[in-house]
């Protein structure tokens, strides 16, 4: 696979006194150059701690971390010009009195070939607030300014921690377009998000984390392809056991709600014809019969559970 933009191998990070709580517990994944890697997980799963270790803001207790082939803590000076960071807290490091345009011009001054600040202000809908103090910006405007500051130096790799949290639909689309352009330009992007549609739209590779460990990883197709369903409507109370008997091993049949039938299968290539033949043999006329792929959100909930979490 060659050298990845980010390599995380068996990383552990604990907090508190003994017995310490493991926020990250043997985590391993890789993020490629020129690709968007989405880290997904419930609140408290360890996503932000992982990103902060990759950014060099926290030290791992155990394991190995490499960012652009370097140690993010020991080689922080060499990495800073090459890596963009958008923290979860948009006020981190920004003086409350700094004006939006002024802040971007300062960020640009730290880089050899920055994106022109005015271009980013225009692109992210901030031109009208360029002379407005940071504390007077709305939450969404602060979020967009933080995104602009993360990419202004034309980084090789950028970390975006929940980049569209609190943004309206138009601003989300603008942020998505910018992330897609970064990837197309060869920039590696590692982002965390709670928006499954965002991950489906942007991610080349998805890593689902729960309780500090990877519970699933792969492309969107790889994660959702094994989870396909055939659904149809018919008279309530069909003989689902009889239908099950005609299906290959590993299939399931459920009626919920009444009169709506869901057939799950690991490989549904012949499922439509099998179900159609069974219905015809039993004098049943199915309605709205079709195969659907389960969404990333459904896979996410299956892997991490449906219960509410604190935090």
TrEMBL record:
One annotated GO molecular function: ATP binding
Membrane topology, as annotated: Peripheral membrane protein
Pfam families: ABC_tran
Domain of life of the organism encoding this protein: Bacteria
Compartments, record wording: Cell membrane
Residue ranges occupied by any ABC transporter domain in the UniProt entry: 6-236
Leader sequence segment: none
Keywords: Antibiotic resistance, ATP-binding, Nucleotide-binding, Transport
Annotated protein name in UniProt: ABC transporter ATP-binding protein
């Amino acid at each position: 696979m060659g050298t990845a933009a980010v390599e995380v191998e068996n990383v552990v990070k604990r907090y508190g006194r003994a017995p310490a709580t493991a926020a990250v517990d043997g985590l391993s994944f890789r993020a490629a150059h020129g690709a968007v890697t989405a880290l997904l997980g419930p609140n408290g799963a360890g996503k932000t701690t992982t990103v902060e270790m990759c950014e060099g803001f926290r030290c791992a207790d155990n394991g190995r971390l490499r960012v652009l082939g370097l140690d993010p803590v020991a080689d922080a000076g060499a990495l800073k010009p090459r890596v963009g960071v958008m923290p979860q807290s948009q006020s981190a490091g920004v003086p409350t009195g700094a004006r939006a345009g002024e802040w971007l011009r300062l960020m640009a001054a730290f880089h050899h070939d920055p994106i022109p600040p005015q271009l980013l202000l225009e692109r992210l809908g901030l031109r009208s607030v360029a002379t407005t103090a940071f504390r007077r910006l709305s939450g969404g405007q602060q979020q967009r300014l933080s995104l602009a500051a993360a990419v202004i130096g034309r980084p090789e790799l950028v970390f975006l921690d929940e980049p569209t949290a609190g943004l309206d639909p138009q601003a989300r689309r603008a942020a998505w377009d910018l992330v897609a352009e970064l990837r197309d330009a060869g920039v590696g992007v590692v982002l965390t998000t709670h928006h499954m549609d965002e991950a489906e739209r942007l991610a080349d590779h998805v890593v689902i984390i729960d309780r500090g460990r990877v519970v699933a990883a792969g492309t969107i197709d790889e994660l959702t392809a094994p989870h396909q369903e055939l659904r149809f409507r018919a008279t309530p109370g069909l003989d689902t056991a009889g239908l099950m008997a005609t299906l290959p091993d590993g299939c399931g049949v459920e009626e919920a709600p009444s009169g709506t039938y869901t057939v799950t299968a690991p490989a549904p290539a012949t499922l439509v014809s099998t179900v159609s033949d069974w219905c015809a043999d039993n004098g049943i006329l199915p309605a709205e019969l079709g195969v659907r792929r389960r969404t990333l959100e459904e896979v996410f909930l299956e892997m991490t559970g449906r219960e509410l979490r604190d935090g």
